[in-house]
Amino acid sequence: MAESRKPLKIVLASPRGFCAGVERAIQIVERALERYGPPVYVRHEIVHNRSVVESLEAKGAIFVEELDAVPDDRPVVFSAHGVPKKVPAEAARRNLFYLDATCPLVSKVHREAERHHDQHRTVILVGHAGHPEVIGTMGQLPPGAVLLVENVSQAETIDVPDPLNLAYATQTTLSVDDTVAIVAALRRRFPALQGPKLEDICYATANRQAAVKAIAGACDALVVIGAPNSSNSLRLVEIAASSGCARSRLVQRAADMDWKWLEGAWRLGITAGASAPERLVDELVAACRARYQVTVEEVCTTKESTVFKLPRELVA
C-alpha cells in the first residue's frame, strides 16, 4: 500500500503577483514586438523577474544595460523602474525610437521631485541605494539636489542645506511600516518638511504587505515567490517574519524550493511579489501536491481593479 502523504494546508495571500504597472510594462514589450517585429531592445530588466525576462527573450526581446548596446534602427523600451533624464535625452540625440514603460506611480514621484526642485526645496528620497527606481528618481534632478535616506538612523543624522526648504519623496516599493518610521524621524527634525498629499508607496505594494500580515501569524512557514533583486518581494519576506512567521523566505520558483526547510510545517503561506507571474504560484502549489496531501485556502484582504493605459504609439 502506498505510504500516506502528510497533510499540508496552503494559505494563499491575495492580492499577490502582478500589479498594474508590471502588467503594463510587459504588454508594452509584447505589443512592440508585434508591431515592429523582433528584435526589440529593453534597457534593464523590464521587471525584476527572471521568468518574465526569459519569456520575453524567447519572443525576440533583447535586454541591455545601456543605450550604447542598442542599434540606431531598432526600438528600445525603458523598464518599469524608470530612468534618469539623461537616458531619454541620449535616445533623442541619437534619434532612437523609444517607448517608456515607467510605472505611472513612479512617474508621479518624478514629477513631485521636479515640482519641489522648482520651488527651491532640497528633496530627501527615502529608498534603497543602487535600486534602479532610486537611480531613476535621483536622475530627474541635478547632482546634489536629491539626498538619499535608507533608514531611521540616517534620517536622524542627515545634514541638509536649509531645514526650512525641504521635501521628501519615497521609492514606491518600500515597507509601509519602515517608511512611516523614517518619515516620522524626518518630521521630528524638520517640522517644515513638505511631502506628497498621498504616500508614494504604491497601492499594490501596500496591498501585498497587508495580505501577508493577514496570514503570517497563522502559518508555520511562508514563501514569497520573487526575484532576489525585487525590492517589493524582499520587503514581503521581512514583513512576514515580523508579523508572526519567523520561517519565511524568498524562492524564485518551485525548482528552487528547499523541501527540508519545510519539514515540520503544517500550514504554508504563499504569496508573490508584484513582478512574479501567477504561473509560478501554480507551479509551487503543484510541486507541493506531489509531496503532500494539500488543501488550499485563499485569504483576500482587498480587490484590485487598477489598469494603466499603454503609450499612444501602441494603441493607435
Keywords:
316 residues, alpha/beta, Cobalt-precorrin-4 Transmethylase, domain 1, Rossmann fold, 3 domains, five-stranded parallel sheet, four-stranded parallel sheet
Descriptive report:
With 316 residues, this protein is an alpha/beta fold. The chain has 3 domains: 7-18 and 203-300, Cobalt-precorrin-4 Transmethylase, domain 1 (3-Layer(aba) Sandwich), CATH 3.40.1010; 20-103, Rossmann fold (3-Layer(aba) Sandwich), CATH 3.40.50; 104-189, 3-Layer(aba) Sandwich (Cobalt-precorrin-4 Transmethylase, domain 1). It is 36% helix and 19% strand. The strands form 3 sheets. It has a 5-stranded parallel beta sheet with strand order 10-9-11-1-12, with helices on both faces. Helix 2 links the parallel strand 2 (40-43) and strand 3. Helix 8 packs parallel to helix 9. The longest helix has 17 residues, at 20-36. The termini are far apart. 43% of the residues are buried. The model has no long low-confidence stretch (mean pLDDT 96).
